[in-house]
Write a structure and sequence with these properties.
The chain has 749 residues and is α+β, with helices and mostly antiparallel strands.
Length: 749
């Protein structure tokens, strides 16, 4: 019988390769070759018993075995192959050392033998008797030791791989917050058995310190405080890894009681951003080549993560990194508190690019980013959103404090101007401030609100700070336009526009020829109607009005063409509105000419309306387009007449046929004498220029009678007729023409 003995391993993660069971055959062979052996024990090279014979439990052998264990197996001289120890009770103890071919100790075999009658065996005799067993056992131990070393190496490499794989996963998932870096450094410290690990990137305000399990945080901070500046300076000077495996007696890091491995964190392979440093106690194993390579790979990964997280030109966070870090800071408690965002847009950078060159504009952006970086307080985040626009997250700050920070930054930006080619390059910026409110996508909504406030600051003169407020109508309109911009584009692609027709009738009792203004309506993706003033404002803000005008013209022609003959007999006319953006678009005039020439509609079926302010703003192109429309037999009305300040000045220039009086005068005609006077003056002017007059917003019978008494020719409004789907109007007109024809045939008969 044999007895298993507890094995103390050199490393807790090293598997037990040489078990008691695997040593049973060797023990039996020793017993056969040395019949006098009372006890047999195998020790490993560290003096730990691996196997023992069953006789070791015999009480009679306890004193001899005590003497055997009194001799340290590890303490045997490396130059000898064993030793002999006389034992009480006519017994002898033998220790036989097992060595490899290179004389490296593998373990030892201990025997307790009963002395023969003649004399005890010598060590040489025991060696001679056990030589075959010892040689086989030595080969077995060499093989097992090699396998154990390979397994230990595999375990180490697996852990290396896990560490690097974790860093690669962090990179792939764009984990670039301080907490992500801290997890990476702590994993490196634990894996390499270090006392302290640190990452320093001064330009990015990154200073992370992680302590090992046996190191106090205060001690780690003290060591890093003594060394980090010197390590960064050395890395910036040499741009390579520094390994110190012995205590230095001179130099800036002399007498630091740690082994040091310091790897530079590079930007683009040239610029040193910071260092990744690890510290080991003096008695710990040295930093070897494997560990150096691991840390260098981690340093490169950190540099790559930083390269993706920060804008290369300004050093501020990129927008994706800004949003990730902001989301990590916007905890439920932070959202319940006061957190604000500041949106910054540099003023007139495009003019600098045109006058001085793009490189000067880039210099302004870099100087502005540096000013922003200097103003960043603790926990604040700063990012370059795109181009010449920036964003800041200000935790624990209500709107008033964020406004004060923005004002301070606005003043700082005005001080960074410079002289270029003997000309002053002035720098200013517009700011928008908004609170981060808990809800769906709080950061996105806050940034959108701050951007709207920033646009309002530009509209109000630039170089100022505006705070988003739901009571500010201009800001609310901008917010509505932004939220509806995508909806308008989708409606244009999905054909979710429709046309309605509102009648325009004569007020003086003349023949009522069918005349209508076509009004545009839109539905959102849920089928709900969107008010025209909202979606038209968004369309103009995002330059979608010309595309919508083209759709309207093509749709009207498509709907009228099948009924052109009966509509002409009724002398019907349909007015289509043209936006100011279309007037200013040279391509739109070519489109209109082509559409009218190809449609082949009879003269007079179509007319057009342009607003007075849009026509005045694009007077040259407006005049050219109106004249071309007149050549195609189309009437043209000047809409909202009287609202502008230059109505009379430009009226003689524009060859219009109708004046549509602005609704503000019509609605107030019963109570405001000035509105009455304006209406009367417009009517007299129109008569003198032989133009027709149309009053819009006729919302009551009293208003209708009042404007008719003032001489207005036509009226349009809810008291006259509400808008009706264009399809129904066309069907009614076609039916009316058929009825008229039938009556005419009957009368003829």
């Amino acid at each position: 019988m044999t007895k298993s003995v507890a094995v103390a391993l050199e490393r807790p993660d090293t598997p037990e390769l040489l078990s008691a069971t695997s040593l049973d055959p060797y023990g039996q062979l020793v017993k056969l070759l040395v019949p006098d052996a009372l006890a047999i024990v195998f020790f490993d090279r560290m003096g730990v018993a691996l196997w023992s014979s069953d006789g070791i439990d015999d009480p009679d052998l306890a004193p001899p075995l005590a003497c055997v264990h009194a001799v340290d197996p590890v303490g045997i001289d490396d130059a000898t192959d064993g030793t002999v120890e006389p034992l009480p009770g006519e017994q002898t103890g033998y220790a036989l050392v097992l060595r490899s071919a290179s004389r490296t100790r593998l373990g030892s075999l201990w025997l307790v033998c009963r002395n023969p009658a003649e004399s005890p065996h010598s060590l040489e005799e025991i060696h001679a008797m056990l030589r075959p067993v010892l040689q086989c056992l030595e080969r077995e131990l060499v093989a097992q030791d090699s396998i154990g070393g390979l397994q230990r190496s595999l375990v180490t490499r697996d852990r290396d791989f896990e560490l690097l794989l974790g860093a690669a996963h962090d990179e792939a998932t764009e984990a670039d917050t301080p907490a992500d870096f801290e997890r990476l450094i702590q994993a490196c410290v634990d894996h390499l058995g270090c006392a302290v690990g640190a990452l320093f990137v001064p330009d990015k305000n990154i200073a992370i310190c992680c302590a090992g399990q046996a190191t106090a945080a205060a001690e780690a901070s003290q060591v890093l405080g003594r060394t980090h500046r010197h390590l960064i300076g050395w890395a910036q000077l040499h741009r390579q890894t520094m390994t110190v495996n012995h205590l230095l007696r001179q130099g800036p890091i002399a007498d630091v009681p740690y082994k040091i491995l310091s790897c530079p964190v590079m930007h683009g392979g040239q610029t040193v951003l910071g260092v990744l440093a690890l510290f080991k106690p003096p008695r710990a194993p040295d930093f070897d080549l494997r560990q150096v390579r691991i840390v260098e790979m981690l340093g490169r990964r950190v540099g790559h993560i930083l390269l993706n997280a920060y804008d290369p030109s300004t050093g501020l966070l990129s927008r994706p990194a800004f949003e990730r870090r902001a989301h990590s800071l916007l905890t439920p408690d932070a959202l319940r508190g006061n957190t604000s965002v500041i949106y910054v847009d540099l003023d007139r950078v495009h003019l600098v690019n045109e006058n001085f060159g793009m490189h000067v504009g880039d210099e302004i952006i870099v100087r502005a980013a540096e000013a922003i970086r200097r103003k960043l307080g603790p926990q604040m985040l700063g990012a370059r959103i795109s181009g010449d626009r920036f964003a800041l997250l200000v935790p624990d700050a209500h709107s008033e404090r964020a406004q004060a920070i923005a004002e301070d930054l606005r003043e700082a930006l005005t001080q960074i101007g410079f002289i270029k080619d003997r000309q002053a390059v002035e720098v200013t910026a517009s700011f928008g401030v908004a609170a981060v409110i808990d809800g769906h996508h709080p950061l996105s909504h806050a940034l959108a609100s701050a951007e709207i406030a920033c646009k309002a600051a530009k509209d109000r003169g630039r170089n100022r700070v505006e705070v988003y407020s739901q009571g500010d109508q201009s800001i609310v309109r901008r917010y509505t336009d932004i939220s509806l911009g995508g909806t308008v584009r989708a409606a244009l692609l999905d054909q979710r526009f429709r046309l309605e027709a509102q009648p325009v009738v004569p007020l003086n009792g003349g023949s009522a020829k069918p005349k209508f203004e076509l009004l545009l309506r839109m539905s959102d993706d849920a089928g709900n109607s969107v008010p025209p003033d909202k979606f038209l404002s968004a369309a103009e803000r995002y330059q979608l009005a010309p595309a919508i005008d083209r759709w309207v013209v093509q749709r009207v022609i498509e709907m009228i063409r099948p009924h052109a003959v009966p509509l002409q007999k009724l002398q019907a006319c349909f007015a289509v509105n043209i936006s100011g953006q279309s007037l200013g678009d040279a391509a739109f005039a070519l489109f209109m000419e082509g559409a009218l020439r190809e449609c082949g509609l009879p003269l007079g079926l179509l007319s057009f309306e342009v607003t007075e302010t849009a026509a005045v703003a694009n007077i040259v192109r407006a005049e050219a387009l109106i004249r071309r429309l007149r050549e195609f037999g189309c009437a043209v009305a000047l809409d909202d007449f009287g609202r502008g300040l230059s109505s009379l000045t430009y009226l003689r220039t524009l060859p219009v046929t109708h004046l549509k009086i602005d609704g503000s005068f019509v609605r107030d005609v019963l109570e405001d004498e000035r509105s009455q006077a304006m209406l009367s003056a417009i009517v007299q002017l129109a008569k003198a220029m032989k133009l027709e007059t149309v009053a819009e917003c006729v919302e009551s019978e009293a208003i209708r009678q009042a404007i008719r008494s003032l001489g207005v020719g036509f009226g349009q409004g809810f008291s006259i007729g509400r808008p009706v789907p264009f399809e129904k109007v066309l069907a009614a007109l076609v039916a009316a023409n058929m009825t008229r024809q039938a009556l005419s045939v009957t009368a003829t008969r």
